[in-house]
Design goal:
The chain is α/β, with parallel strands linked by helices and about 170 residues long. It has 6 helices and 6 strands; from the N terminus they run αββββαβαβααα. α4 crosses α5 and α4 crosses α6. The two termini are about 25 Å apart.
């Protein structure tokens, strides 16, 4: 997605899911989400740019950043810098909750995790208007940890079938 497409989603959606690549190198102030350019290339949407409008994410109840190291960074009292971190910047820009990663995660594992998490959120939302995102994250983590390799491969293949995705690799 391009910056403009993401900004539009942020302004309208209750849940935004970003699956892609990110840079979490906080040693040289170079962190952000890798997004498409209108010409089809790629560029880094720097962390400081994500929060230029402090209410940009006010409609977002949940942002899922399914990209490596999006949860890393520091929050400084002197304001948002590119070392602030993507997740913290999203919260500062008004998001109610952010799910992010602290390290690199293989795409297949991230897919299984987010599928389990969304399944738990959907189930909880049917019984209660308030969904505890932290509980859904913890339970999804436990679900993935308890899967055998065969169970994970079977679930991943089922997801590929539902989405008609033949490009993804196998576990």
């Amino acid at each position: 997605a391009t910056k403009d497409a993401l900004v539009s989603a942020f302004e309208m959606a209750g849940i935004v899911h970003f699956a892609g690549h990110a840079v979490g190198d906080f040693t040289d102030d170079d962190s952000g989400l890798k997004v498409a350019t209108p010409s089809g290339g790629a560029e880094l949407w720097r962390t400081s740019e994500l929060v230029q409008d402090s209410s940009a994410l006010a409609m977002c109840g949940l942002i899922v950043l399914s990209a490596c190291e999006t949860g890393r960074g520091e929050l400084r009292i002197d304001g948002v810098t590119d070392t602030t971190g993507i997740a913290a910047s999203a919260l500062l820009a008004g998001a109610s909750a952010v799910v992010a990663t602290l390290w690199r995660v293989p795409d297949e594992v991230a897919t299984l995790f987010t599928d389990a998490m969304y399944e738990l959120i959907a189930a909880a939302s049917h019984s209660s208007p308030a969904v505890d995102i932290a509980v859904a994250v913890a339970n999804a983590r436990n679900t993935i940890r308890q899967m055998t390799g065969d169970e994970a491969a079977e679930r991943f293949d089922a997801l590929r079938e539902v989405t008609n995705d033949r490009s993804a690799g196998y576990l």
